[in-house]
What does this fold into?
Amino acid sequence: MAVPPEWLEFVCPKCKQRLVCFEQEGFFLCAASRLRYPIQDGVPVFLVDEATEVAPPEVDRLLKQAKELGLPGA
It folds into this structure.
């Protein structure tokens, strides 16, 4: 399934940086703030309080994976 075009416009509500969409895994990643925003029932949840902090090595791994897969925002 293709990512809806409007999802490519989303930015992190905390730092306003571009997000990487991991639609298959069900989340958006902000590398700058190291936050992972869930996609619940097909709807992105961009609440900082609902986001999960991601450790720097995991951010690096996810960004590498996103680039390899050609994910939007990578």
Notes: The chain has one domain: 5-69. The helical segments are 56-69. The CA atoms of residues 43 and 73 lie 18 Å apart. The beta strands are 20-22, 27-30, 35-40, 43-44, 52-53.
